[in-house]
């Protein structure tokens, strides 16, 4: 298995992923790791429909995703991993998955959240989680679409 | 150019862009439509058609996925066309103005999207007071920001820029002009390659080559090949059983759908067109989505100001979906809000959750099908017609796109109301994946056809061997017609896959075109 992209995006498979990343990386399998979505038949069905043609998708709870990714089930695939926020990413990291570089797309703004960059807003708790990922040596790049502008999120974290 | 004409053109440009905000993404700002309109105002439709067609191909792959800001073609189309006409320059020379102006356009769009962050902040204050009027005001003010941020710079550029542009264009020496022409011929490769990269996966790639070969060896034309592609994909899809996608078990409906009157449904369809209004980086379509629901919320929370206040605040949170696909989200939200208003035990968080769950995948479907496949193919076909000077090309583009547009809005809303959340589970079983696959196949063949038809790069090189002159192009043609366009497209495609920035590729292509053109290697 080769992991071609690990992305944090609270909209999971949407246009930027379907028309952008999944094609630009030549992925063959998208693994969505999120507990709520995995338990919701409607959302699961929709994500399946939104998966681009020619690519398979697995919508799993974080634990099940970690198991699949650390196992040999996807040996021949080029995999995109999608999570909604830093907490799930940390779980994956702690399950033993290699996370060297992470792409961060959208973590939305809402009450009680602080905007860190154009792409990312975070709760105080999430900021700590991002920082933990930073100290674990994960390289983080904030970028919406392939070929579009990007910024160094590790550096942004250093300033807050 | 008179002040009055500049004013009219600035208004048209602002309005075309505003169309994306308030009129449901009608694609009025696409070059293949906007440039001929500018031509019409200035009394030279033909130049407008050619400039518009060229820009359409170059910026075919420019699409704003999920709030990202790609090259914005509205300002570029207007200014490029206007100056080409007033200075009597060639359509290729118009690109010298138009392409930098598209970068200006994306700057303006970012400016407006940032300015609208304030509108959302104010709208939230009005929501606290359940002041729906105030929220509506913020929507219109936000849209005014968007409109003016395009109209004013266009007006200034048109009134003050004409003299400079004339000096610039007149100052271009002949050798450079040859280079510019070559660059203009090479640049559409970028549009085609971006489109190819949004459509292709390893197993579907052959369809691109099939489309290309048909274009290179036959006279089918892009329209013919696209039609053929639709038929081919229909045959493949009926012959092939479901490709192992696991079907989900039928789910019991969670609750009986709420009756939503015909009148309300139509109101949702029309108001849903304004989803992208006052678009901000912060909450994206929050204000627009709320605006679509306001009259309905006012009705169901008639005697419950507290409920209305909470609902308004709830919907002013982040929202973003491909605008054509907003209907089902409105339908499901209206359903849940109605039940909540009746006093059923529905948590506000649950409504938020459903909205967030739906918007991502629906955006994915809409972007792949309509923004990534349908619009570029129709644009490519119409650009081809525009090159032939057919004045109906922009009309066909806008009418064709919007028949599909409004049909999608209508059918998704009505089905959403009728089926509620079950609409989405039936999507998977009704072979919708097959439609997506068919669209991918059609898209790939059409891109192949576009490369083989409208990428007119060739070489004027002549080699002298044993005192006979051999034109290199005819040797290439005897290997395979349109070999150069194919190679260039695949090179650009490879660069995209390798992570090159779109702007860098554009610069590289321009430089390569200029130099090789000026040296007489490409033409």
Walk me through this protein's architecture.
Chain A is built from seven helices and nine strands. Chain A is of the alpha/beta class. The model of chain A has no long low-confidence stretch (mean pLDDT 90). Chain A has helices at residues 15-24, 35-38, 41-50, 62-70, 86-94, 124-135, 153-158; strands at 2-9, 29-33, 56-60, 78-83, 101-106, 114-115, 121-122, 139-143, 150-152. Helix content of chain A is 38%, strand content 26%. Chain B is built from 21 helices and two strands. Chain B has a two-stranded antiparallel sheet with strand order 1-2. Chain B is globular, with a radius of gyration of 25 Å. The two termini of chain B are 33 Å apart. The chains are: A alpha/beta (160), B mainly alpha (523).
Strand content of chain B: under 5%
Average residue-wise pLDDT of chain A? 90
Q: Helix and strand string of chain B, N-terminal first? A: HHHHHHHHHHHHHHHHHHEEHHH
| Strand tally of chain B | 2
Order of helices and strands of chain A: EHEHHEHEHEEEHEEH
Largest sheet of chain B: 2 strands, antiparallel
> Which stretches of chain B of 5+ consecutive residues score pLDDT under 50?
244-251
Radius of gyration of chain A: 15 Å
Give the CA-based shape of chain B: globular
Tell me the distance between the termini of chain B. 33 Å
Q: Catalogue the unreliable spans of chain A.
A: none
Question: Main sheet of chain B: which strands, in order across?
Answer: 1-2
Which short descriptors sum up this protein?
heterodimer; A: alpha/beta; two-stranded antiparallel ribbon; 7 helices; 38% helix; B: 523 residues; mainly alpha; 2 strands
Short synopsis of the structure:
The complex is a heterodimer of chains A (160) and B (523). Chain A is an alpha/beta fold.
What are the SSEs and their pairings?
The complex is a heterodimer of chains A (160) and B (523).
Chain A: E1 2-9, H1 15-24, E2 29-33, H2 35-38, H3 41-50, E3 56-60, H4 62-70, E4 78-83, H5 86-94, E5 101-106, E6 114-115, E7 121-122, H6 124-135, E8 139-143, E9 150-152, H7 153-158
Helix pairs in contact in A: 5-6
Chain B: H1 3-22, H2 31-41, H3 45-58, H4 73-87, H5 91-128, H6 132-170, H7 174-186, H8 188-199, H9 205-217, H10 221-239, H11 262-272, H12 286-300, H13 305-315, H14 326-341, H15 348-387, H16 393-419, H17 422-429, H18 432-454, E1 462-465, E2 468-471, H19 472-479, H20 483-497, H21 502-518
Antiparallel strand pairs in B: 1-2
Helix pairs in contact in B: 1-6, 2-3, 2-4, 2-16, 3-4, 3-5, 3-8, 3-15, 4-5, 4-6, 5-6, 5-7, 6-12, 7-21, 8-18, 8-20, 9-18, 10-18, 11-12, 11-14, 11-16, 12-13, 12-14, 13-15, 14-15, 14-16, 15-16, 15-18
């Amino acid at each position: 298995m080769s992991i071609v992209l690990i992305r944090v995006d609270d909209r999971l498979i949407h246009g930027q992923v379907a028309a952008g990343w999944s094609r630009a990386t030549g992925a063959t399998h998208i693994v969505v790791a999120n507990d709520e979505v995995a338990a919701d038949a409607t959302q699961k069905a929709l994500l399946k429909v939104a998966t681009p043609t020619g690519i398979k998708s697995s919508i799993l709870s974080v634990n099940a995703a970690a198991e699949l990714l650390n196992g040999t089930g996807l040996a021949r695939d080029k995999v995109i991993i999608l999570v909604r926020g830093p907490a799930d990413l940390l779980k994956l990291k702690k399950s033993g998955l290699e996370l060297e570089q992470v792409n961060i797309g959208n973590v939305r703004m809402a009450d009680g959240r602080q905007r860190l960059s154009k792409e990312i807003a975070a709760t105080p708790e999430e900021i700590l989680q991002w920082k933990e990922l930073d100290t674990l040596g994960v390289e983080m790049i904030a970028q919406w679409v392939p070929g579009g502008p990007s910024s160094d999120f590790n550096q942004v974290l250093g300033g807050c | 150019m008179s002040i009055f004409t500049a004013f009219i053109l600035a208004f048209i440009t602002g309005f075309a862009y505003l169309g994306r905000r308030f009129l449901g993404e009608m694609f009025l700002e696409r070059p293949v439509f906007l440039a001929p309109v500018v031509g019409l105002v200035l009394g030279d439709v033909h130049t407008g058609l050619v400039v518009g067609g060229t820009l359409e191909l170059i910026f075919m792959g420019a699409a704003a996925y999920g709030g990202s800001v790609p090259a914005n073609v509205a300002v570029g189309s207007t200014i490029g066309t206007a100056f080409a006409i007033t200075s009597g320059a060639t359509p290729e020379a118009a690109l010298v103005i138009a392409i930098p102006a598209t970068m200006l356009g994306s700057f303006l769009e970012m400016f407006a999207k940032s300015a609208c962050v304030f509108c959302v902040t104010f709208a939230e204050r009005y929501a606290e007071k359940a002041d729906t009027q105030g929220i509506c005001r913020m929507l219109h003010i936000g849209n005014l920001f968007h409109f003016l941020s395009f109209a004013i710079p266009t007006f200034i550029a048109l009134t003050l820029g004409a003299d400079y542009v004339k000096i610039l264009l007149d100052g271009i020496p002949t050798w450079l002009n040859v280079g510019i022409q070559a660059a203009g011929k090479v640049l559409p490769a970028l549009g085609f390659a971006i489109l190819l990269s949004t459509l292709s996966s390893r197993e579907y790639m052959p369809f691109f080559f099939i489309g290309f070969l048909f274009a290179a060896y036959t006279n089918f034309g892009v329209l013919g090949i696209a039609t053929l592609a639709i038929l081919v994909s229909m045959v493949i899809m009926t012959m092939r059983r479901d490709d192992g996608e696991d079907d989900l078990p039928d789910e019991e409906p969670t609750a009986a759908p709420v009756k939503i009157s015909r009148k309300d449904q139509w109101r949702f369809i029309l108001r849903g067109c304004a989803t992208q209004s006052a678009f901000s980086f912060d909450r994206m379509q929050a204000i627009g989505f709320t605006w679509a629901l306001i009259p309905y919320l006012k009705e169901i929370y008639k005697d419950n100001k507290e409920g209305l206040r909470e609902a308004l605040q709830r919907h002013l949170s982040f929202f973003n979906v491909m605008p054509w696909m907003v209907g089902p989200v409105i339908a499901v939200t209206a359903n849940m809000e109605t039940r909540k208003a009746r006093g059923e035990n529905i948590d506000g968080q649950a409504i938020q959750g459903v909205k967030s769950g739906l918007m991502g995948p629906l955006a994915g479907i809409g972007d792949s099908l309509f923004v990534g496949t349908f619009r570029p193919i129709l644009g490519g076909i119409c650009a081809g017609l525009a090159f032939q000077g057919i004045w109906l090309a922009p009309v066909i583009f806008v009418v064709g796109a919007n028949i599909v547009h409004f049909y999608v809005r209508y059918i998704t809303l009505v089905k959403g109301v009728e089926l509620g959340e079950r609409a989405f589970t039936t999507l998977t079983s009704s072979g919708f994946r097959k439609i997506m696959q068919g669209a991918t196949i059609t898209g790939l063949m059409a891109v192949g056809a576009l490369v083989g038809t409208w990428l007119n790069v060739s070489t004027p090189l002549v080699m002298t061997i044993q005192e006979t002159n051999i034109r290199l192009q005819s040797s290439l043609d005897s290997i395979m017609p349109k070999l150069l366009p194919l190679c260039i497209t695949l090179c650009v495609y490879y660069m995209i896959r390798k992570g090159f920035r779109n702007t860098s590729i554009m610069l590289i292509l321009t430089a390569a075109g200029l130099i090789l053109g000026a040296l007489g290697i490409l033409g």
